[in-house]
Amino acid sequence: MKFYGKIATYTIVILFIFIGFLTLKNILGVNIYSSIRLELFPPIVGTILITFFSVAIATPVGVVTGIFISEYCSLKIKEFLIFIFKMLSSLPSILYGLFGFIMMLTINKIFNSDFKPCFFLSALSLSFLILPYIVHATIVGFSQIDFQLRELPLTLGAKKYQAIFKVYLPEAISFISSGIALAIGRAAEDTAVIMLTGVAAFAGIPSSLLAPYEALPFFIFYSTQENVTNEKIKLIYLAALIIIVISSIFIFLSKKVRFIGNGKFNTFN
């Protein structure tokens, strides 16, 4: 196991060095401030907002769903639902984009409205994409709780919901935060979903939830479809680097959840 662990570690280090070398090589000489101010600022804002909103929608739904499956479902139903969410997590992201697009058409048909692809539709579709990761992480976290710790609050007179939120949830928060971190990465980098549900070139910063917007993954996509010059390649690498930075910041913040949770849920009161 140690041998394979070392191989995996060395492989990851070499990969990061290679990617870092390519990135630095291609962004050297770029006026980063001017590039961000003139071309990348709207996509950066759009990426931050769409990541935040999609994770904010998916996290409470995913955690509550995972708790319900872990604590209130029978074994057969639990196994069936776990299988369903595993299957959902393996679906291509374009299907979630198509789902959001069909949902928009259905709303227009039923309510005779003029609902168009927009920021809110993208955030909702992305939340469906990342939901299985949070649900699965919650189920795994609750399954790792020690049997004695499970029984202790109940024997002391705590109700089931008190045991869940005061004892079980803080114990599982590290697993949940890992699921949220994975969800953040998917939400920040995905292009297929947002292409069908609201992102647009040169749309600017979204003025409302029902407005189109720009995002860094889509900026990279449509930039590679144009006449790719050396300056454009440098911008593409810079945009990719910013995506990594944004994801890293969100993941760092998600890791703080475990400390907040352990500080908040520490009594039966």
How would you sum up this structure in a few lines?
By secondary structure, this protein is mainly α. 80% of the residues lie in helices and 0% in strands.
Descriptive account of the structure:
There is one protein chain. By secondary structure, this protein is mainly alpha-helical. It has 2 domains: 30 residues; 226 residues, MetI-like (MetI-like fold, Orthogonal Bundle). Helix content is 80%, strand content 0%. The chain is built from 10 helices and no strands. The longest helix has 41 residues. The N and C termini lie far apart (44 Å). 33% of the residues are buried. The C terminus is likely disordered.
| Overall strand count | 0
| CATH class annotation of the largest domain | Mainly Alpha
* CATH fold-level topology of the largest domain: MetI-like fold
Shape: globular
Properties at a glance:
269 residues; mainly alpha; MetI-like fold; 2 domains; disordered C terminus
Write the layout of secondary structure elements.
Blueprint: H1 2-27, H2 32-72, H3 75-89, H4 93-111, H5 119-143, H6 147-155, H7 160-189, H8 192-197, H9 216-224, H10 230-264
